[in-house]
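Section 5: illustrative case.
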Protein backbone atom coordinates (compact mmCIF):
# COMPACT_ATOMS: atom_id res chain seq x y z
CA UNK A 1 0.00 0.00 0.00
CA UNK A 2 1.17 3.50 -0.78
CA UNK A 3 2.41 5.23 2.38
CA UNK A 4 0.86 8.58 3.14
CA UNK A 5 1.45 11.15 5.84
CA UNK A 6 -1.04 12.40 8.40
CA UNK A 7 -0.53 15.50 10.54
CA UNK A 8 -2.98 16.27 13.36
CA UNK A 9 -2.86 19.36 15.51
CA UNK A 10 -4.75 18.96 18.78
CA UNK A 11 -6.23 21.89 20.67
CA UNK A 12 -8.21 21.82 23.93
CA UNK A 13 -8.92 19.09 26.42
CA UNK A 14 -7.96 15.45 26.94
CA UNK A 15 -11.08 14.31 25.11
CA UNK A 16 -9.54 15.85 22.02
CA UNK A 17 -6.19 14.18 22.73
CA UNK A 18 -8.06 10.88 22.89
CA UNK A 19 -9.96 11.63 19.68
CA UNK A 20 -6.71 12.48 17.90
CA UNK A 21 -5.20 9.14 18.91
CA UNK A 22 -8.28 7.37 17.55
CA UNK A 23 -8.08 9.29 14.26
CA UNK A 24 -4.53 8.02 13.90
CA UNK A 25 -5.87 4.48 14.57
CA UNK A 26 -8.63 4.71 11.95
CA UNK A 27 -6.30 6.12 9.29
CA UNK A 28 -3.50 3.57 9.84
CA UNK A 29 -5.17 0.77 7.83
CA UNK A 30 -5.55 3.29 4.99
CA UNK A 31 -1.77 3.63 4.82
CA UNK A 32 -1.49 6.91 6.72
CA UNK A 33 1.47 7.33 9.10
CA UNK A 34 1.55 10.14 11.64
CA UNK A 35 4.08 12.92 11.06
CA UNK A 36 4.93 15.90 13.26
CA UNK A 37 5.18 18.55 10.56
CA UNK A 38 2.31 19.70 8.35
CA UNK A 39 4.45 20.78 5.33
CA UNK A 40 4.68 17.43 3.62
CA UNK A 41 1.48 15.84 4.94
CA UNK A 42 -1.13 14.35 2.60
CA UNK A 43 -3.82 14.87 5.20
CA UNK A 44 -3.86 17.68 7.75
CA UNK A 45 -6.45 17.61 10.53
CA UNK A 46 -7.00 20.48 12.95
CA UNK A 47 -8.75 18.96 15.96
CA UNK A 48 -10.16 22.13 17.45
CA UNK A 49 -11.46 23.55 20.73
CA UNK A 50 -14.26 26.08 21.15
CA UNK A 51 -14.11 26.62 24.90
CA UNK A 52 -12.72 30.18 24.84
CA UNK A 53 -12.58 32.79 22.12
CA UNK A 54 -8.79 32.68 21.80
CA UNK A 55 -8.79 28.94 21.20
CA UNK A 56 -11.35 29.26 18.41
CA UNK A 57 -9.64 32.21 16.68
CA UNK A 58 -6.33 30.36 16.58
CA UNK A 59 -7.89 27.85 14.22
CA UNK A 60 -8.44 30.46 11.52
CA UNK A 61 -4.85 31.67 11.73
CA UNK A 62 -3.62 28.07 11.49
CA UNK A 63 -5.84 27.50 8.45
CA UNK A 64 -4.10 30.49 6.83
CA UNK A 65 -0.69 28.97 7.51
CA UNK A 66 -1.69 25.57 6.14
CA UNK A 67 -3.17 27.17 3.01
CA UNK A 68 0.30 28.31 1.96
CA UNK A 69 1.70 24.81 2.41
CA UNK A 70 -1.19 23.37 0.47
CA UNK A 71 -0.53 25.81 -2.40
CA UNK A 72 3.15 24.88 -2.49
CA UNK A 73 2.27 21.18 -2.68
CA UNK A 74 -0.24 21.83 -5.42
CA UNK A 75 2.49 23.51 -7.51
CA UNK A 76 4.47 20.27 -7.22
CA UNK A 77 1.40 18.41 -8.49
CA UNK A 78 0.53 16.91 -5.10
CA UNK A 79 -2.71 17.09 -3.13
CA UNK A 80 -3.09 17.98 0.53
CA UNK A 81 -6.45 17.38 2.15
CA UNK A 82 -7.25 19.88 4.90
CA UNK A 83 -9.83 18.84 7.47
CA UNK A 84 -11.17 20.73 10.46
CA UNK A 85 -12.56 18.52 13.23
CA UNK A 86 -13.44 18.92 16.91
CA UNK A 87 -15.55 21.45 18.75
CA UNK A 88 -15.14 24.55 16.56
CA UNK A 89 -16.16 22.39 13.63
CA UNK A 90 -19.23 21.26 15.53
CA UNK A 91 -20.20 24.77 16.65
CA UNK A 92 -19.49 26.71 13.48
CA UNK A 93 -18.98 24.18 10.71
CA UNK A 94 -20.99 26.10 8.12
CA UNK A 95 -19.13 29.30 8.94
CA UNK A 96 -15.74 27.60 8.49
CA UNK A 97 -16.87 26.35 5.07
CA UNK A 98 -17.84 29.90 4.14
CA UNK A 99 -14.91 31.73 5.68
CA UNK A 100 -12.17 29.29 4.61
CA UNK A 101 -12.72 27.82 1.13
CA UNK A 102 -9.35 26.06 1.42
CA UNK A 103 -10.87 23.63 3.96
CA UNK A 104 -11.86 20.38 2.24
CA UNK A 105 -13.90 18.89 5.03
CA UNK A 106 -15.41 19.70 8.38
CA UNK A 107 -16.46 17.05 10.87
CA UNK A 108 -17.54 17.01 14.52
CA UNK A 109 -16.35 15.05 17.58
CA UNK A 110 -18.96 12.34 16.96
CA UNK A 111 -18.30 11.56 13.29
CA UNK A 112 -14.52 11.20 12.96
CA UNK A 113 -14.73 7.41 12.76
CA UNK A 114 -15.90 8.10 9.17
CA UNK A 115 -12.65 9.86 8.38
CA UNK A 116 -11.36 7.23 5.91
CA UNK A 117 -14.59 7.46 3.90
CA UNK A 118 -14.58 11.24 3.99
CA UNK A 119 -10.95 11.41 2.83
CA UNK A 120 -11.48 8.93 0.01
CA UNK A 121 -14.60 10.73 -1.10
CA UNK A 122 -12.76 14.04 -1.04
CA UNK A 123 -9.83 12.65 -3.04
CA UNK A 124 -12.01 11.05 -5.68
CA UNK A 125 -13.98 14.25 -6.08
CA UNK A 126 -10.70 16.11 -6.45
CA UNK A 127 -9.42 13.73 -9.10
CA UNK A 128 -12.60 14.36 -11.06
CA UNK A 129 -11.78 18.05 -10.86
CA UNK A 130 -14.86 18.91 -8.83
CA UNK A 131 -14.90 21.19 -5.85
CA UNK A 132 -14.92 18.69 -3.05
CA UNK A 133 -16.26 19.76 0.30
CA UNK A 134 -17.71 17.65 3.04
CA UNK A 135 -19.58 18.69 6.19
CA UNK A 136 -20.41 15.96 8.72
CA UNK A 137 -21.41 17.17 12.18
CA UNK A 138 -24.02 14.65 13.38
CA UNK A 139 -24.19 14.11 17.14
CA UNK A 140 -25.05 10.39 17.52
CA UNK A 141 -22.34 8.78 19.65
CA UNK A 142 -22.86 5.00 19.79
CA UNK A 143 -21.85 4.22 16.23
CA UNK A 144 -18.51 5.94 16.70
CA UNK A 145 -17.46 3.80 19.68
CA UNK A 146 -18.61 0.60 17.94
CA UNK A 147 -16.29 1.41 15.07
CA UNK A 148 -13.37 2.52 17.23
CA UNK A 149 -13.42 -0.54 19.49
CA UNK A 150 -12.49 -2.71 16.54
CA UNK A 151 -9.10 -1.04 16.11
CA UNK A 152 -5.81 -2.29 17.54
CA UNK A 153 -4.18 -0.43 20.38
CA UNK A 154 -0.58 0.71 20.48
CA UNK A 155 1.82 -0.50 23.12
CA UNK A 156 2.35 2.13 25.79
CA UNK A 157 2.40 2.62 29.55
CA UNK A 158 -0.36 5.13 30.06
CA UNK A 159 -3.56 5.50 28.08
CA UNK A 160 -6.84 7.36 28.00
CA UNK A 161 -10.14 5.53 27.83
CA UNK A 162 -13.25 7.57 27.08
CA UNK A 163 -16.13 6.18 29.14
CA UNK A 164 -18.57 9.07 28.92
CA UNK A 165 -19.18 11.98 26.59
CA UNK A 166 -21.20 15.13 26.47
CA UNK A 167 -22.82 17.18 29.16
CA UNK A 168 -26.33 17.95 30.42
CA UNK A 169 -25.25 20.42 33.08
CA UNK A 170 -25.50 23.60 31.01
CA UNK A 171 -23.27 25.87 33.06
CA UNK A 172 -24.25 29.26 31.66
CA UNK A 173 -20.72 30.08 30.40
CA UNK A 174 -19.95 26.82 28.63
CA UNK A 175 -20.19 25.56 25.04
CA UNK A 176 -19.55 21.88 25.76
CA UNK A 177 -23.24 20.79 25.90
CA UNK A 178 -23.60 22.25 22.40
CA UNK A 179 -20.36 20.95 20.89
CA UNK A 180 -20.31 17.46 22.40
CA UNK A 181 -24.02 16.88 22.77
CA UNK A 182 -26.01 15.24 25.55
CA UNK A 183 -24.52 13.03 28.27
CA UNK A 184 -23.83 9.54 27.00
CA UNK A 185 -22.20 6.64 28.86
CA UNK A 186 -20.56 3.79 26.96
CA UNK A 187 -21.64 0.24 27.68
CA UNK A 188 -19.84 -1.44 30.57
CA UNK A 189 -19.33 -4.60 28.55
CA UNK A 190 -17.54 -2.66 25.80
CA UNK A 191 -15.48 -0.72 28.31
CA UNK A 192 -14.28 -3.85 30.06
CA UNK A 193 -13.30 -5.31 26.68
CA UNK A 194 -11.46 -2.15 25.65
CA UNK A 195 -9.75 -1.96 29.04
CA UNK A 196 -8.58 -5.58 28.81
CA UNK A 197 -7.18 -4.83 25.39
CA UNK A 198 -5.22 -1.90 26.83
CA UNK A 199 -3.87 -4.02 29.68
CA UNK A 200 -2.75 -6.68 27.21
CA UNK A 201 -0.92 -4.02 25.23
CA UNK A 202 1.10 -3.16 28.34
CA UNK A 203 -0.85 -0.21 29.72
CA UNK A 204 -0.26 0.11 33.48
CA UNK A 205 -2.07 3.41 34.02
CA UNK A 206 -5.48 4.18 32.59
CA UNK A 207 -7.22 7.56 32.76
CA UNK A 208 -10.97 7.33 32.37
CA UNK A 209 -12.22 10.30 30.42
CA UNK A 210 -15.49 12.15 30.17
CA UNK A 211 -16.69 15.74 30.11
CA UNK A 212 -18.60 14.71 33.21
CA UNK A 213 -16.84 11.50 33.95
CA UNK A 214 -18.51 10.98 37.33
CA UNK A 215 -21.97 11.19 35.75
CA UNK A 216 -21.14 7.81 34.17
CA UNK A 217 -23.79 5.13 34.61
CA UNK A 218 -24.61 1.82 32.99
CA UNK A 219 -25.85 -1.71 33.45
CA UNK A 220 -23.22 -4.21 34.58
CA UNK A 221 -22.46 -7.71 33.36
CA UNK A 222 -24.85 -9.09 36.03
CA UNK A 223 -27.64 -6.63 35.40
CA UNK A 224 -26.90 -4.15 38.20
CA UNK A 225 -27.02 -0.40 37.75
CA UNK A 226 -23.42 0.80 38.04
CA UNK A 227 -21.95 4.23 38.37
CA UNK A 228 -18.32 5.32 38.27
CA UNK A 229 -17.24 3.77 41.63
CA UNK A 230 -18.37 0.30 40.59
CA UNK A 231 -16.72 0.68 37.20
CA UNK A 232 -13.41 1.72 38.79
CA UNK A 233 -13.56 -1.27 41.15
CA UNK A 234 -14.19 -3.59 38.21
CA UNK A 235 -11.36 -2.15 36.10
CA UNK A 236 -8.95 -2.32 39.06
CA UNK A 237 -9.32 -6.13 38.93
CA UNK A 238 -7.85 -6.28 35.45
CA UNK A 239 -4.36 -7.76 35.56
CA UNK A 240 -1.72 -5.18 34.77
CA UNK A 241 -3.59 -2.01 35.72
CA UNK A 242 -1.71 -0.48 38.61
CA UNK A 243 -3.00 3.06 38.40
CA UNK A 244 -6.47 4.40 37.65
CA UNK A 245 -7.35 8.06 37.24
CA UNK A 246 -10.50 9.79 36.03
CA UNK A 247 -11.25 13.26 34.75
CA UNK A 248 -13.15 15.64 34.64
CA UNK A 249 -15.53 15.41 37.56
CA UNK A 250 -18.38 17.71 38.53
CA UNK A 251 -18.98 18.36 42.25
CA UNK A 252 -22.65 17.47 41.71
CA UNK A 253 -21.78 13.82 41.00
CA UNK A 254 -19.12 13.28 43.70
CA UNK A 255 -21.05 10.56 45.55
CA UNK A 256 -19.98 9.12 48.91
CA UNK A 257 -19.32 5.84 47.18
CA UNK A 258 -16.90 7.50 44.82
CA UNK A 259 -15.08 9.15 47.74
CA UNK A 260 -14.81 5.73 49.36
CA UNK A 261 -13.05 4.31 46.30
CA UNK A 262 -10.22 6.76 46.98
CA UNK A 263 -9.88 5.38 50.50
CA UNK A 264 -10.22 1.71 49.61
CA UNK A 265 -8.46 1.13 46.37
CA UNK A 266 -4.70 1.37 46.03
CA UNK A 267 -5.10 1.56 42.22
CA UNK A 268 -7.17 4.74 42.50
CA UNK A 269 -4.55 7.51 42.43
CA UNK A 270 -4.55 10.21 45.14
CA UNK A 271 -5.32 13.05 42.76
CA UNK A 272 -8.60 14.64 41.80
CA UNK A 273 -9.37 17.40 39.33
CA UNK A 274 -12.53 18.95 40.72
CA UNK A 275 -13.37 22.30 39.12
CA UNK A 276 -15.17 24.79 41.35
CA UNK A 277 -15.07 27.83 38.98
CA UNK A 278 -15.71 30.46 41.68
CA UNK A 279 -15.97 30.96 45.45
CA UNK A 280 -19.00 33.25 45.54
CA UNK A 281 -22.36 31.52 45.93
CA UNK A 282 -24.10 34.30 44.05
CA UNK A 283 -21.80 33.77 41.05
CA UNK A 284 -22.00 29.97 41.29
CA UNK A 285 -25.77 30.30 41.10
CA UNK A 286 -25.58 32.57 38.06
CA UNK A 287 -23.23 30.02 36.52
CA UNK A 288 -25.83 27.29 37.14
CA UNK A 289 -23.18 25.17 38.84
CA UNK A 290 -25.64 23.39 41.25
CA UNK A 291 -23.05 23.41 44.07
CA UNK A 292 -22.14 26.21 46.44
CA UNK A 293 -18.80 26.93 48.06
CA UNK A 294 -19.77 25.13 51.29
CA UNK A 295 -20.88 21.93 49.55
CA UNK A 296 -17.67 21.97 47.50
CA UNK A 297 -15.53 22.34 50.61
CA UNK A 298 -17.50 19.54 52.29
CA UNK A 299 -16.59 17.21 49.42
CA UNK A 300 -12.91 18.10 49.78
CA UNK A 301 -13.07 17.58 53.55
CA UNK A 302 -14.74 14.16 53.18
CA UNK A 303 -12.32 13.17 50.47
CA UNK A 304 -9.40 14.02 52.73
CA UNK A 305 -10.94 11.86 55.44
CA UNK A 306 -10.82 8.94 53.00
CA UNK A 307 -7.41 9.78 51.62
CA UNK A 308 -5.54 12.39 53.69
CA UNK A 309 -2.74 12.90 51.16
CA UNK A 310 -5.00 13.45 48.12
CA UNK A 311 -3.87 16.23 45.77
CA UNK A 312 -6.65 18.54 44.61
CA UNK A 313 -6.70 20.33 41.28
CA UNK A 314 -9.30 22.78 40.01
CA UNK A 315 -10.55 25.15 37.32
CA UNK A 316 -11.43 28.79 37.92
CA UNK A 317 -13.12 31.49 35.91
CA UNK A 318 -12.58 35.12 36.88
CA UNK A 319 -14.70 38.01 35.66
CA UNK A 320 -17.93 36.13 35.08
CA UNK A 321 -20.71 38.71 34.38
CA UNK A 322 -21.63 40.58 37.56
CA UNK A 323 -18.54 39.43 39.53
CA UNK A 324 -17.69 42.13 42.09
CA UNK A 325 -14.49 42.63 44.09
CA UNK A 326 -16.30 41.02 47.00
CA UNK A 327 -17.21 37.95 44.90
CA UNK A 328 -13.64 37.64 43.71
CA UNK A 329 -12.39 37.88 47.29
CA UNK A 330 -14.51 34.82 48.05
CA UNK A 331 -12.77 32.91 45.27
CA UNK A 332 -9.39 33.80 46.79
CA UNK A 333 -10.66 32.71 50.22
CA UNK A 334 -11.86 29.39 48.88
CA UNK A 335 -8.45 28.78 47.29
CA UNK A 336 -6.68 29.56 50.57
CA UNK A 337 -9.02 27.21 52.33
CA UNK A 338 -8.76 24.25 49.95
CA UNK A 339 -5.03 24.49 49.13
CA UNK A 340 -4.64 23.25 45.58
CA UNK A 341 -1.80 21.09 44.34
CA UNK A 342 -2.29 22.62 40.90
CA UNK A 343 -5.02 24.42 38.98
CA UNK A 344 -6.13 26.04 35.75
CA UNK A 345 -7.59 29.53 35.72
CA UNK A 346 -9.11 31.60 32.95
CA UNK A 347 -10.64 34.97 32.21
CA UNK A 348 -14.31 34.59 31.44
CA UNK A 349 -14.75 34.49 27.66
CA UNK A 350 -18.27 35.15 26.31
CA UNK A 351 -19.24 32.31 23.99
CA UNK A 352 -21.89 32.74 21.29
CA UNK A 353 -25.13 30.96 22.10
CA UNK A 354 -24.51 30.59 25.85
CA UNK A 355 -26.73 32.42 28.39
CA UNK A 356 -23.87 34.20 30.16
CA UNK A 357 -22.79 35.90 26.93
CA UNK A 358 -26.16 37.70 26.94
CA UNK A 359 -25.99 38.79 30.58
CA UNK A 360 -25.77 42.46 31.52
CA UNK A 361 -22.81 43.75 33.53
CA UNK A 362 -20.01 42.01 31.64
CA UNK A 363 -16.76 42.65 33.49
CA UNK A 364 -14.15 44.91 31.91
CA UNK A 365 -11.11 43.25 30.39
CA UNK A 366 -8.57 45.04 32.59
CA UNK A 367 -10.40 44.00 35.75
CA UNK A 368 -10.45 40.40 34.54
CA UNK A 369 -6.71 40.55 33.86
CA UNK A 370 -5.94 42.01 37.24
CA UNK A 371 -8.01 39.37 39.07
CA UNK A 372 -6.51 36.58 37.02
CA UNK A 373 -2.96 37.59 37.86
CA UNK A 374 -3.75 37.78 41.57
CA UNK A 375 -5.43 34.37 41.49
CA UNK A 376 -2.63 32.82 39.47
CA UNK A 377 0.02 34.14 41.85
CA UNK A 378 -1.77 32.45 44.73
CA UNK A 379 -2.29 29.17 42.84
CA UNK A 380 1.34 29.15 41.75
CA UNK A 381 2.46 29.61 45.34
CA UNK A 382 0.25 26.71 46.42
CA UNK A 383 1.63 24.50 43.67
CA UNK A 384 5.19 25.31 44.76
CA UNK A 385 4.24 24.61 48.39
CA UNK A 386 2.74 21.28 47.42
CA UNK A 387 5.78 20.30 45.39
CA UNK A 388 8.11 21.33 48.22
CA UNK A 389 6.09 19.23 50.66
CA UNK A 390 7.23 15.98 49.01
CA UNK A 391 10.97 16.70 49.26
CA UNK A 392 12.61 13.90 51.22
CA UNK A 393 9.79 11.45 50.46
CA UNK A 394 9.97 8.37 48.27
CA UNK A 395 7.25 8.37 45.61
CA UNK A 396 6.32 5.77 43.03
CA UNK A 397 6.80 7.28 39.58
CA UNK A 398 5.52 5.97 36.27
CA UNK A 399 8.23 6.67 33.70
CA UNK A 400 6.70 8.05 30.51
CA UNK A 401 9.64 9.28 28.49
CA UNK A 402 13.10 10.75 28.30
CA UNK A 403 14.01 13.51 30.73
CA UNK A 404 15.40 16.99 30.23
CA UNK A 405 18.98 15.82 30.70
CA UNK A 406 20.68 12.98 28.79
CA UNK A 407 20.87 10.84 31.92
CA UNK A 408 17.31 11.51 33.15
CA UNK A 409 13.81 10.21 32.59
CA UNK A 410 10.44 11.90 32.92
CA UNK A 411 7.44 10.53 34.77
CA UNK A 412 4.43 11.25 36.97
CA UNK A 413 4.05 10.85 40.71
CA UNK A 414 0.80 9.45 42.16
CA UNK A 415 -0.19 13.11 42.70
CA UNK A 416 0.22 13.90 38.98
CA UNK A 417 3.39 15.92 39.58
CA UNK A 418 5.86 15.98 36.71
CA UNK A 419 9.04 14.26 37.91
CA UNK A 420 12.57 14.40 36.50
CA UNK A 421 14.59 11.40 37.64
CA UNK A 422 18.37 11.12 37.26
CA UNK A 423 19.00 7.48 36.41
CA UNK A 424 22.22 7.36 34.39
CA UNK A 425 22.30 7.36 30.58
CA UNK A 426 22.47 3.55 30.34
CA UNK A 427 19.13 3.14 32.14
CA UNK A 428 17.07 5.68 30.17
CA UNK A 429 15.71 3.15 27.68
CA UNK A 430 14.99 0.21 29.98
CA UNK A 431 12.96 2.28 32.46
CA UNK A 432 10.35 3.45 29.93
CA UNK A 433 6.87 2.37 31.02
CA UNK A 434 8.04 1.12 34.43
CA UNK A 435 6.87 2.22 37.85
CA UNK A 436 9.88 2.96 40.05
CA UNK A 437 10.49 4.33 43.54
CA UNK A 438 12.05 7.76 43.47
CA UNK A 439 13.58 9.66 46.35
CA UNK A 440 12.59 13.29 45.85
CA UNK A 441 15.43 15.75 46.46
CA UNK A 442 14.31 18.92 44.71
CA UNK A 443 11.20 20.86 43.72
CA UNK A 444 10.02 24.03 42.04
CA UNK A 445 6.63 25.30 40.86
CA UNK A 446 6.27 23.07 37.83
CA UNK A 447 8.13 19.87 38.59
CA UNK A 448 9.94 17.83 41.21
CA UNK A 449 13.17 15.87 40.85
CA UNK A 450 14.90 12.92 42.41
CA UNK A 451 16.96 9.76 42.13
CA UNK A 452 16.06 6.06 42.11
CA UNK A 453 15.41 4.93 45.68
N1 LIG B 1 -16.54 19.50 32.43
C1 LIG B 1 -15.63 20.24 33.17
C2 LIG B 1 -14.82 21.28 32.41
C3 LIG B 1 -15.03 21.53 30.98
S1 LIG B 1 -14.29 22.92 30.24
C4 LIG B 1 -16.34 20.88 34.35
O1 LIG B 1 -17.52 20.75 34.50
O2 LIG B 1 -15.74 21.54 35.14
C5 LIG B 1 -12.79 23.21 31.08
C6 LIG B 1 -12.75 24.50 31.82
O3 LIG B 1 -12.78 25.60 30.93
C7 LIG B 1 -13.92 24.75 32.74
O4 LIG B 1 -13.80 24.09 33.94
C8 LIG B 1 -13.90 26.25 32.90
O5 LIG B 1 -13.08 26.64 33.97
C9 LIG B 1 -13.27 26.73 31.60
N2 LIG B 1 -14.26 27.40 30.76
C10 LIG B 1 -15.35 26.89 30.19
N3 LIG B 1 -16.05 27.82 29.53
C11 LIG B 1 -15.38 28.98 29.69
C12 LIG B 1 -15.59 30.32 29.26
N4 LIG B 1 -16.65 30.66 28.54
N5 LIG B 1 -14.68 31.25 29.60
C13 LIG B 1 -13.60 30.93 30.34
N6 LIG B 1 -13.35 29.69 30.78
C14 LIG B 1 -14.22 28.72 30.47
FE1 LIG C 1 -19.26 22.83 30.70
FE2 LIG C 1 -20.46 22.86 33.02
FE3 LIG C 1 -20.75 20.78 31.43
FE4 LIG C 1 -18.41 21.23 32.62
S1 LIG C 1 -20.36 20.75 33.62
S2 LIG C 1 -18.72 20.69 30.49
S3 LIG C 1 -18.31 23.45 32.63
S4 LIG C 1 -21.50 22.82 31.03
FE1 LIG D 1 -12.54 22.34 23.96
FE2 LIG D 1 -14.33 20.71 23.05
FE3 LIG D 1 -12.69 19.93 24.95
S1 LIG D 1 -14.61 22.84 23.39
S2 LIG D 1 -12.30 21.80 26.05
S3 LIG D 1 -12.12 20.46 22.91
S4 LIG D 1 -14.83 19.41 24.74
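Designed sequence:
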Amino acid sequence: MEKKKLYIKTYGCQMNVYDTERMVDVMAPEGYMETDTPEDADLVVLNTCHIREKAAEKVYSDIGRIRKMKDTKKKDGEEMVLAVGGCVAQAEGAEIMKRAPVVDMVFGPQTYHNLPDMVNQSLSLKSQGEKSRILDTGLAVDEKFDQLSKKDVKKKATAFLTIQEGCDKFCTFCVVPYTRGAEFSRSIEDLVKDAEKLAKAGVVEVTLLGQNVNAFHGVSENGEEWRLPQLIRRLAKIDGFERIRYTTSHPHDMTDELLKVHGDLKECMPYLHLPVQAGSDRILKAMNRTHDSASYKDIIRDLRKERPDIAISGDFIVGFPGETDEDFKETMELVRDVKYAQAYSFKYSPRPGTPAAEMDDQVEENIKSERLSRLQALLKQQQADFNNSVIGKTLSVLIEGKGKAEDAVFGRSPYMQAVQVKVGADKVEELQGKIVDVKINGANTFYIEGILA
